[in-house]
Inverse folding.
């Protein structure tokens, strides 16, 4: 089959002052009909810029300065704005990463999908409504009639992504560009959306350019794959061959970073429990007026767990499963209604605010989002020393201890003077754990600290080895 | 209708605010030197101690502060705003006489400011950093920085004396009695300059808010989706951006209703308009507590109603409110 | 436009020189009937009935609707209005007025002596400011017949004092609309006055305008000429001047415009700006000393302060030629009582002022300041605020630091005349044709606390008290005038108050007006002969 | 710091800064250029500008040198604007912080008070405060401060509402920091930038309010503020219009400068908006 979309030696120049001169350097890709090409790479590798370049929706100051983008033989770079608009939506359609914000909150789903027909066809309103309902049916949204009238905020993330797909496929475009459509979804919904895209692609024979950073997705959906790094295509080919024996060192490094799903070798655990959680439960009551019409959600229902000394207990669950609420209950950020949290003999749940404050020496928390867990206005060293200062250590001594800890977590001790925004995501995670481990805590609770930025950083985090 | 309960709850919540204001101002004005009888004698140019004592008893000023406050609140509960010392008439009638001028002035200035603020804001946002943006923004800043009374007086000098296009002041021309349309036209003519004077300051604010809000919305994801659907820029703005950008503008109306009445004190005195603003200023000078509190009560109701309407408008614009996110 | 202020004011002064004003020969112009006369109404009053409130703000409207027993003619002598003739008993305790027949109220009821009796006993004696003191010793008003009213006094009432006071304090109200209708002050007729005058009340739109129309059955033959008078409420002076120039207002009374606007309109042929017609409303700018401050209790300090002010410079450069040098509590326009010798005057002499202050023991301390005083200017009148700044500037040169404390109307009266919380105060003393009416109370001791414009300076002078009391009941005209001469000289020697500037109200009126400013209190009179040329 | 670089990229911000420095220079050099008391009687009243070498900008209707009053007035108006802004921002931050951080009944109570101040026309409250406490410079400044805090309170509350559940605040809580330290140590530094930018708006309004008060002859007469000069000029507006015009322009330039600087800071702080 002749390729329907060809990128021939395309380069995209960034405005002056960026961290590198070109977002894309001499990129050549080809996409045939009825085929899914995955473009994979870390953030900043230029994969999203490729999508924007094809659609000619580059942000201000960014320009294509070389190469051709052929769609059905026509070079899109040469088209004027009016001609390009005809291609967008009808010829090449696009779906985006954040379903939450990708739809106009003030207009109904049916209205926004219908707009595709208003733009590119002269169907009557009734016909448009029928076609939209059919599309919603096709993407298997529960109760299409209700979804038609609903507003974006009334649908779940998955349903909204389905609506986006329906919108994209409204005019049976030749090419569908999917820019990390499943990254922000939780695992089960992610699988459903991938399956949906796979089925629709087979049935309609659309060519799909799928952009992701997750090799799991590549393995599941891609026919061919192209690996990008710093704006260049380092390797491309059949999925099996690229995953089987990656040629380029960078590809090998990326594949190695995917954590295997098998359990680590069992270690001898001590019998004596450091912490026991018995029948903890927490319910949220929101809204309602004088008890009427309240919405009650049982976030944590009668949870009992035991944590042996020196062991790591992993708690897995989807968002909304109550795992964060349980964590916050343990450090008394939230007060549970019932249940005991016994930490070497003391029931934390019954402590007063003052007593809890001194008990914080024995229990610490590291948070999920490295960007948000450090106060941007406070030097990194101070953030680590804070816990010590609060518990009575003199400031200079605390700062010295902080320098020591920086060395321990593999950071340059002099970095204590720098501000959080000068560190990468991974480094910040180390600072957070250093701050948590500053106090001689016997037990550390670290909630799923797998960061969305890049999978390769995660495996080297020190915390896994020591606690 | 969920939005009615929401707006209704807000209305109920504003009752304690209103009581808080009234009691606060009542006690505050007790501390002012001199009372309404002193002010009356100042205006009369004379008066002996005996008449002063008589008048004080008549106006109930000889009671203790708390007794006076108690009387006032007890009457307020029965919606009786009391008696105006300046005009010897019930406060309600005095305010009713002055209300039309103020409402006309405020609605005219508010709609002028909102309408032109919106249009200029959109034009500035579309041509950001190009000459229309800088021109409009600087013009906006100029009107924002200019003291309103100064602009008013200069406008009189230019438009009514030098060019003789517009009347120099007053609410309508009473030397000759018009009726019906002719009278409304005459009043409109009298309100042109005051509306401009009061409106331009607020137009500058709406202009800046609209420009900022447009720029903010243009950066959101769903605008990128809209463009990827093959829409031209105008349709993107009209069908998607404008409605979202209007939300902060609508809330602003609610917030500014109060300050606008404050602004009208100066404008009404420059253009000798018989409005609540000037009446409030006179009642402070004349220490006429009943009238002042009556005006505050009415202007608070005005502001609350405007906020009530703004809530309804906001709910119509943003479905997230009614369906309860 | 390089006209210096002084030159500008000089030319307007030529027009405004009150005495030599060549009245245009109106003889041969036949009065035009009809037309609407619009008046600038600056400060809204609480009510409009002149028998309840004696102030220019009420006369400007009420004076056209209600009439008084006696008014002043062109030469300032009393002339009968509702009273045709009058005579006083030799002992001065009985004064009989013969009333004008055939006069009716606007609602058609006849005007009789019963109205005069009710108004005198219930309004002048009990409510009217200054009327209460004037009629203090009035015991009864007998009405032997509908056209005769006999005033009976406990102590002698000098006829010329009463005749001088009645133009201001002699307005008559309709008895049938007030008697038995509850508290006179709250009677709605006060806001829709009914009188016998040339114009009938039509409408009062609060904050906007008052309208009165021709009284068809007015007792003077074929009068008034005007169809309608409209008073427009304009509180901002600059806006009022603008409306006059835009032709929306014909007449601005009682110095309603700013000094510079008055000077400018004076040079405009469309307008006449003069003090003519206001001789009945003379006033003096005052500086009141609070004797509770030990510095001011010392006569040398008070005299030093007087010498430190260059009054001619201030009048010439700040007030224009509408004001002149004041010589004492009785202004020069009061031909009946102005004494030939006014006693000590205090010409500008900075060195003498400094010497007096040194003598009094107040040497200049650090930074040249001897002591500091709080000056409270009255909040009405542009001239008062200019004068207070001038006082601050001039006294700073002799080492007295002045802090000006700005208040509003009510606050001023309370702090000066009730709380006595002032060191210096400056405002207006209104002279009402006779010293006994509103002038001597500034000096007579024993005034009740809180009574405005009376002696609250904590200063008692038995000599001046005696002179004042004698003059008040002296029936002989010549003796009374001599007594007031002593009063003026004593006042200027002791200087509890200094009256350095004498001013008359200023009138700005359209040149199309005829028969205007033809009596000493024209602004307040009934305008029965006023008309507008084309 | 890239903030400075970003700030200087926009021409209006630079113009604003230049104007502001000019006004500050005027305020600073007032004593050197015009040592005499600006309120002193300098010459005959109402001399036209540029007509008399001794008085560059002429004299007002009290015979005072207008140029001296403009220079000394710069100091007073900036002082009034500045102090009133500090007062209103202080009150605004405290109210906004506690309302935003604690929420529940504390928030409702404080918001009722804020609403009360916002429902009541602020110029009216200003009139009452001046009528009650007299019109010395201190009462006028404090009154303007008291009247204009609600807006900054709302702004601070909004910032606190979004920041209080941020993870670095929860991290602070788990480390045992007391509420007060969390509010002022952790959250406030992050909430300040938009409030500081808003301070320029408050200052502009404060200067305009003072001039409106002076227009109604309610400002402090012992002080050479621009507002007083406009108030005095009002009586001679039709002929000697320059007495009001000159201070009017001075106020215009200062408020323009303050607003441009505020806008420049705002754009520099969230560059995304500007570079779109």
């Amino acid at each position: 089959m002749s390729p329907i979309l060809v990128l021939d030696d395309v380069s995209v120049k960034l405005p002056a002052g960026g961290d590198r001169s070109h977002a894309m350097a001499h990129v050549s890709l080809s996409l045939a009909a009825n085929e899914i090409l995955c473009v994979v790479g870390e953030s900043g590798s230029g994969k999203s810029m490729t999508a924007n370049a094809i659609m000619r929706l580059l942000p201000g100051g960014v320009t294509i300065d070389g190469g051709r983008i052929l769609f059905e033989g026509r070079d899109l770079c040469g088209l004027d704005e009016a001609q390009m608009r005809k291609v967008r939506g009808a010829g090449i359609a696009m779906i985006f990463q954040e379903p939450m914000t990708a739809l106009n909150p003030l207009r109904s789903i049916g209205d926004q999908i219908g707009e595709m027909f208003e733009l590119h066809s002269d169907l009557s309103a009734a016909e448009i409504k029928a076609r939209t309902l059919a599309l919603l049916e096709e993407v298997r949204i529960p109760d299409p009639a209700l979804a038609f009238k609903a507003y974006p905020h009334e649908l779940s993330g998955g349903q909204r992504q389905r609506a986006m797909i329906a919108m994209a496929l409204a005019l049976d475009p030749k090419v569908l560009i999917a820019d990390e459509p499943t990254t922000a979804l939780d695992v089960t919904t992610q699988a459903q959306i991938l399956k949906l895209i796979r089925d629709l692609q087979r049935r309609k024979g659309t060519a799909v350019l799928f952009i992701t950073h997750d090799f799991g997705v590549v393995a599941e959906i891609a026919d061919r794959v192209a690996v990008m790094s710093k704006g260049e295509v380092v390797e491309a080919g059949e999925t099996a061959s690229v995953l089987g024996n990656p040629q380029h060192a960078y590809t090998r490094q990326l594949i190695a970073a995917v954590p295997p799903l098998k359990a680590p070798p069992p270690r001898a655990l001590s019998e004596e429990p450091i912490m026991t959680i018995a029948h903890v439960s927490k319910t949220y009551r929101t809204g309602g007026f004088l008890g009427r019409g309240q919405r009650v959600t049982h976030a944590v229902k009668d949870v009992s767990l035991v944590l042996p000394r020196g062991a790591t207990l992993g708690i897995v669950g989807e968002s909304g499963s109550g795992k964060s609420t349980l964590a916050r209950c343990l450090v008394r950020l939230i007060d549970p209604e019932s249940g005991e949290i016994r930490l070497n003999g003391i029931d934390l749940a019954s402590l007063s605010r003052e007593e809890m404050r001194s008990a914080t020496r024995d229990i610490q928390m590291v948070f999920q989002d490295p960007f948000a867990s450090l106060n941007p206005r406070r030097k990194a060293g101070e953030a680590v020393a804070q816990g010590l200062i609060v518990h009575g250590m003199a400031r200079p001594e605390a700062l010295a201890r902080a320098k020591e800890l920086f060395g321990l977590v593999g950071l340059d001790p002099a970095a204590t003077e720098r501000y959080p925004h000068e560190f990468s995501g991974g480094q910040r995670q180390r600072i957070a754990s250093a701050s948590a481990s500053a106090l001689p805590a016997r037990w550390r609770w670290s909630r799923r600290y797998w960061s969305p930025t890049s999978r390769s950083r995660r495996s080297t985090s020190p915390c896994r080895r020591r606690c | 209708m969920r939005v009615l309960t929401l707006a209704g709850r807000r209305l109920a919540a504003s009752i304690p605010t209103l009581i808080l204001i009234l009691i606060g101002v009542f006690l505050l004005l007790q501390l002012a030197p001199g009372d309404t009888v002193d002010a009356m004698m100042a205006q009369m140019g004379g008066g002996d101690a005996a008449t002063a004592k008589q008048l004080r008893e008549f106006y109930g000023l000889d009671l203790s502060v708390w007794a006076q406050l108690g009387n006032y609140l007890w009457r307020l509960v029965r919606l009786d705003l009391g008696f105006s010392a300046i005009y010897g008439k019930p406060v309600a009638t005095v305010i009713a006489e002055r209300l039309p001028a103020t409402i006309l002035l405020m609605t005219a200035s508010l709609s002028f400011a909102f309408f032109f603020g919106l249009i200029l804001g959109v034009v500035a946002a579309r041509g950001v950093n190009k000459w229309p943006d800088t021109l409009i923004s600087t013009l906006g800043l100029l009107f924002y920085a200019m003291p309103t009374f100064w602009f008013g007086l200069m406008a009189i000098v230019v438009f009514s004396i030098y060019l003789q296009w517009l009347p120099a002041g007053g609410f309508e021309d009473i030397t000759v009695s018009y009726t019906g349309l002719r009278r409304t036209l005459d009043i409109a003519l009298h309100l042109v300059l005051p509306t401009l004077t009061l409106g331009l300051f607020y137009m500058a604010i709406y202009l800046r808010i609209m420009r900022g809000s447009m720029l903010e919305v243009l950066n959101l994801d769903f605008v990128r989706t809209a463009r990827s659907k093959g829409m031209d820029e105008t349709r993107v703005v009209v069908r998607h951006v404008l409605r979202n950008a209007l939300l902060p503008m609508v809330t602003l109306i609610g917030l500014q209703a109060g300050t606008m009445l404050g602004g009208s004190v100066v404008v009404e005195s420059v253009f000798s308009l018989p409005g609540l603003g000037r009446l409030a200023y006179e009642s402070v000078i004349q220490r006429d507590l009943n009238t002042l509190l009556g005006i505050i009560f009415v202007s608070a109701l005005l502001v609350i109603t405007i906020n009530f309407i703004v809530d309804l408008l906001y709910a119509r614009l943003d479905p997230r409110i009614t369906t309860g996110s | 436009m390089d006209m210096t202020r002084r030159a500008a004011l000089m030319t307007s002064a030529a027009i405004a020189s009150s005495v030599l004003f060549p009245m245009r020969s109106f003889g041969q112009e036949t009065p035009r009937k009809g037309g609407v006369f619009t008046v600038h109404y600056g400060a809204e009053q609480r009510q409009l009935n002149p028998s309840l409130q004696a102030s220019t703000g009420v006369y400007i409207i009420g004076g056209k609707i209600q009439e008084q027993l006696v008014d002043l003619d062109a030469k300032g002598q009393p002339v009968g209005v509702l009273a045709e003739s009058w005579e006083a008993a030799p002992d001065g305790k009985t004064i009989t007025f013969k009333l004008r027949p055939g006069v009716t109220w606007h609602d058609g009821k006849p005007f009789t002596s019963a109205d005069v009796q009710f108004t005198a006993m219930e309004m002048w004696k009990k409510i009217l400011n200054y009327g209460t003191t004037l009629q203090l010793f009035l015991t009864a008003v007998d009405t032997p017949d509908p056209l005769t009213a006999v005033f009976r006094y406990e102590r002698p009432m000098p006829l010329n004092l009463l005749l001088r006071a009645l133009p201001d304090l002699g307005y008559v109200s309709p008895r049938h609309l007030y008697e038995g209708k509850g508290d006179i002050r709250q009677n709605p007729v006060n806001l829709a006055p009914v009188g016998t005058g040339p114009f009938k009340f039509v409408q009062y739109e609060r904050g906007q305008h008052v309208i009165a129309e021709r009284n068809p059955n007015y007792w003077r033959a074929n009068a008034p000429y005007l169809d309608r008078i409209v008073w427009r409420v304009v509180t901002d002076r600059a806006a009022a001047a603008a409306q006059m120039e835009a032709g929306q207002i014909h007449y601005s009374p009682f110095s309603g415009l700013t000094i510079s606007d008055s000077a400018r309109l004076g040079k405009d042929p469309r307008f006449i700006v003069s003090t003519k017609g206001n001789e009945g409303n003379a006033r003096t700018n005052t500086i009141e000393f609070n004797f509770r401050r030990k510095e001011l209790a010392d006569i040398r300090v008070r005299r030093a302060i007087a010498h430190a002010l260059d009054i001619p410079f201030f009048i010439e450069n700040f007030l224009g030629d509408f004001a002149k040098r004041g010589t004492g509590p009785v202004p020069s326009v009061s031909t009946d009582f102005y004494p030939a010798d006014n006693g000590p005057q205090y010409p500008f002499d900075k060195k003498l002022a400094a010497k007096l202050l040194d003598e009094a023991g107040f040497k200049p301390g650090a930074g040249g300041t001897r002591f500091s005083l709080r000056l409270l200017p009255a909040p009405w009148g542009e001239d008062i605020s200019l004068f207070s700044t001038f006082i601050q500037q001039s006294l700073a040169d002799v080492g007295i630091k002045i802090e000006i404390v700005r208040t509003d109307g009510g606050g001023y009266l309370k702090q000066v005349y009730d709380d006595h919380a002032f060191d210096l105060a400056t405002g207006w003393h209104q002279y009402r044709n006779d010293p006994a009416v509103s002038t001597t109370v500034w000096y007579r001791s024993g005034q009740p606390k809180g009574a405005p414009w009376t002696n609250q300076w904590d200063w008692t002078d038995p000599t001046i008290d005696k002179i004042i009391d004698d003059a008040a009941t002296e029936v002989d005209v010549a003796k009374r005038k001599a007594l007031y001469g002593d009063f003026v000289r004593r006042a200027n020697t002791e200087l509890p108050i200094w009256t350095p500037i004498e001013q008359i109200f200023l009138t700005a009126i359209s040149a199309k007006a005829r028969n205007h400013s033809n009596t000493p209190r024209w602004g307040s009179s009934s305008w029965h002969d006023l008309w507008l040329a084309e | 710091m890239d903030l400075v670089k970003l700030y200087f990229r926009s021409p209006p911000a630079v113009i604003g800064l230049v104007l502001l420095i000019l006004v500050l220079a005027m305020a600073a050099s007032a004593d050197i250029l015009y040592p005499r008391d600006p309120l002193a009687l300098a010459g005959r009243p109402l001399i036209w500008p540029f007509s008399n070498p001794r008085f560059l900008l002429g004299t007002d209707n009290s015979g005072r040198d207008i140029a001296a009053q403009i220079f000394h007035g710069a100091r007073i108006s900036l002082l009034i604007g500045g102090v009133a802004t500090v007062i209103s921002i202080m009150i605004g931050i405290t109210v906004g912080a506690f309302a935003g951080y604690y929420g529940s009944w504390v928030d409702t109570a404080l918001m009722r008070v804020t609403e009360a101040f916002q429902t009541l026309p602020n110029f009216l409250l200003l009139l009452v405060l001046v009528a009650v406490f007299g019109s010395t410079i201190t009462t006028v400044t404090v009154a303007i401060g008291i009247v204009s805090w609600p807006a900054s309170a709302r702004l601070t509350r909004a910032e606190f509402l979004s920041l209080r559940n941020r993870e670095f605040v929860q991290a602070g809580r788990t480390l045992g920091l007391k509420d007060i330290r969390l509010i002022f140590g952790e959250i406030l530094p992050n909430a300040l930038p938009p409030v500081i930018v808003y301070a320029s708006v408050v200052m502009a309004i404060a200067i305009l309010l003072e001039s409106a008060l002076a227009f109604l002859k309610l400002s402090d007469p012992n002080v050479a503020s621009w507002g007083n000069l406009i108030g005095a000029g009002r009586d001679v507006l039709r002929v000697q219009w320059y007495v009001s015009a000159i201070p009017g322009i001075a106020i215009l330039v200062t408020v323009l400068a303050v607003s441009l600087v505020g806008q420049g800071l705002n754009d520099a702080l969230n560059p995304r908006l500007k570079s779109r």
Q: What stands out?
A: Chain B has 13 helices and no strands. Chain B touches chain C through 58 residues (CB under 8 Å). Chain B has a mean pLDDT of 84. The first helix of chain B runs from residue 2 to 30.
